[in-house]
Amino acid sequence: MLKKFLKSLIVTIITFEARIVLSKYKPKIIAITGSVGKTSTKDAVATVLSKRFVIRKSNKSFNSELGVPLTILGLPNGWSNPFIWLKIIFQGLFLCLPNSFQLRTFNYPLWLILEIGADRPGDIEKICKWLKPDITIITHFGKVPAHVEFFSSQKELIREKSFLVKALKESGILILNNDDEDVRSLKDLRRDCRVLTISINHESDYQASNIETTCVEQNGFQVPIGISFRVNYAGNSVPIYINGGLGKQHIYPVLFALSLGNSLGLNMVEMANGISEHKTPPGRMKIVDGIKASTIIDDTYNASPIAMTEALRTLKELKTLGKKIAVLGDMLELGKHSESEHIKIGKEARASCDILITVGIRGRDIAKGAQDNGMDEKFIFQFDTSEEAAIPVKDLIQLGDILLVKASQGIRMEKIVEEIMAKPEMKGELLVRQEPEWSDR
């Protein structure tokens, strides 16, 4: 009870400070929400805007009632340390002071790029009582979104996310994923703002086409190294290359970023070149060299049914002379949908891989779904933890295999990737959750 009270007190104080800072510096605000793709979209938008403006983006996934004001203040998370929180509060207070009282002038960002999530009903509604975006981006919901466990229905979750549309400033810009029917419907909430649409599958303001996986030959095998596609807009087209990442999951963030940048008058060719130089972030369909000339698709950042399905379909489309191995763990926070959604993933895995390895209690339903749909049980291996699975996965790998590794962050599947990557000494650069605060979890 005391811990909950202290957290509430801290949130109240830093939110108050954040509101003063917004009033003082008046930055432009980009708010990004959805059930999947928020962090990747935030990073892509930051890549595009940082070439021209002073920007600040949410640190990692600072997307909560705590993370959003911390991003506005430009301060870190104090975690469980009361002394650090006290320091943070005083630093925030210092930012609120009039410039005449400050010892130095702050170069406050012109643009804030805020990732905003909803774990429970009311999360976004509370934030929108004081945060008014200039631009709102809605990424994707899916039929069974992530974090649906604490919502009575998908409709309730979508309603929660829609508060960011309602909070958008008059004459603001709303950017929507036209491939998601529920996202598309949100345009009817606002008639007084500019609406832009992005898509892969439907005619939109910004649409991707000519999507191809780029490969090179290594040790006699065709090894994927990235994807290329074109972005079509207003009768024009620009080529895009993404180095070190695979799947449609990387295309949508680029479309959001380019549509936003172009709406602000930035040059499309320059933005496309900037995207091509951008490094794929860890744990998001990132290509990592594996042992025995294998290729790892590291998607260990997090998982939801829609993201897991898309990852498996990407694996299915890849060509290899080796085996396709799917290493899949629990998808958390699905509530009453958990069993059925894991079974559906098993069915998808049956059509996408040669060997299936599951991790976690819920992962057993993935194995069941695969076996019920015709996958031979001798090609299915089940483990309770990522630590338990790591060595057996390593032993299964042969020359030229492609492995997809994915689960919710609580399953810690990056531990498996560390065991099977060709250069484990580079884990700090290539893998997720390598910060000290994760070491004892």
Overview of the molecule:
The chain is α/β, with parallel strands linked by helices. It has 2 domains: 10-99 and 108-277, UDP-N-acetylmuramoyl-L-alanine:D-glutamate ligase; 286-434, Protein-Tyrosine Phosphatase, Chain A (Alpha-Beta Complex), CATH 3.90.190. 36% of the residues lie in helices and 21% in strands. It is built from 16 helices and 15 strands. The chain has helices spanning 2-25, 38-49, 67-73, 82-96, 123-127, 154-161, 163-166, 181-184, 251-263, 268-277, 305-317, 338-350, 363-372, 386-396, 414-420, 427-430, and strands at residues 28-33, 55-57, 111-115, 135-138, 173-177, 194-199, 206-218, 221-233, 236-243, 286-289, 295-299, 324-329, 355-359, 380-383, 402-406. The strands form 2 sheets. It has a 9-stranded mixed sheet with strand order 2-3-1-4-5-6-7-8-9, sandwiched between helices. The radius of gyration is 22 Å and the shape is globular. It starts with a helix and ends in an 11-residue tail after the last helix. The model has no long low-confidence stretch (mean pLDDT 94).
What is the gyration radius calculated from CA atoms?
Answer: 22 Å
Instruction: Decide which structural class fits the backbone.
Output: alpha/beta
The largest β sheet comes out as: 9 strands, mixed
Q: Assign a percent range to the helix content.
A: 25-40%
Q: Please identify which CATH superfamily of the largest domain we are dealing with.
A: Mur-like, catalytic domain
CATH topology of the largest domain: UDP-N-acetylmuramoyl-L-alanine:D-glutamate ligase
What is the CATH top level name of the largest domain? Alpha Beta
Approximately how much beta-strand content do the residues carry? 15-25%
Instruction: Please report the number of helical segments.
Output: 16
Instruction: Return the CATH architecture of the largest domain.
Output: 3-Layer(aba) Sandwich
Q: pLDDT under 50 segments (min length 5)?
A: none
Q: What average pLDDT do the residues reach?
A: 94
The main sheet orders its strands as: 2-3-1-4-5-6-7-8-9
User: How many runs of DSSP E, i.e. beta strands?
Assistant: 15
Q: What does the overall shape look like? A: globular
What number of domains? 2
Distance between the termini: 23 Å
